[in-house]
Amino acid sequence: MGHVSASSTILINAAPARVLDAIADYRVVRPKILSAHYRDYRVMQGGQGQGTVATWTLQATRSRSREVRADVDLAGHTVIEKDANSSLVTNWTVAPAGAGSSVTVKTMWAGAGGVRGVFERAFAPLGLRRIQGEVLANLKKEIEATGSAGTPPRP
């Protein structure tokens, strides 16, 4: 059994603090940026940053879905989602990039063993990177079109 991971990065034309606030906003921003692969999204506790608990179903493929219960933590410029139902951990890391920000989302989990694990390590990251790319593109669109909490940007 080995670890499986997938990561994607995007550049966003906004200050790192504004981007981090948007990523940590599970009540307003997060539902707007999720791709069609997510369903049944609910905030169970909190809603902004550390201490938030959110649940959703991630439909990775037509036949493969995962029920996620994310417990949210913050460490510096990283929002950390730990799935209470599995070994899945997703880190959203924001860094300065020129006049804007770089956002990297990295998801890791303990993969299956044997032949199934070989296929999982080969193919799961490809599909997950596609999903991450859609969510990051939606995040970029949301932040660049509005303020971090859904308000228009200041002139």
Description of the structure:
By secondary structure, this protein is of the alpha+beta class. It has a single domain, classed as START domain (Alpha-D-Glucose-1,6-Bisphosphate, Chain A, domain 4), CATH 3.30.530.20. Helix content is 29%, strand content 40%. It contains three helices and seven strands. It has helices at residues 16-23, 29-33, 114-145, and strands spanning 3-12, 38-45, 53-59, 65-75, 78-83, 89-97, 100-110. It has a seven-stranded antiparallel sheet. A hairpin with a 5-residue loop joins β5 and β6 (89-97). The radius of gyration is 15 Å and the shape is globular. Residues 148-155 have low confidence and may be disordered.
Question: In terms of topology, how is this protein built?
Answer:
Layout: E1 3-12, H1 16-23, H2 29-33, E2 38-45, E3 53-59, E4 65-75, E5 78-83, E6 89-97, E7 100-110, H3 114-145
Antiparallel strand pairs: 1-7, 2-3, 3-4, 4-5, 5-6, 6-7
Number of strands: 7
How many helices?
3
Structural class: alpha+beta
Helix content bin: 25-40%
Low-pLDDT ranges: 148-155
Domains (count): 1
Please give the CATH architecture. Answer: 2-Layer Sandwich
Kindly provide the radius of gyration, computed on alpha-carbon positions and rounded to a whole number of angstroms.
Answer: 15 Å
CATH class: Alpha Beta
- At the fold tier of CATH, the topology name is Alpha-D-Glucose-1,6-Bisphosphate, Chain A, domain 4
- Tell me the CATH superfamily: START domain
Mean pLDDT over the full residue set: 86
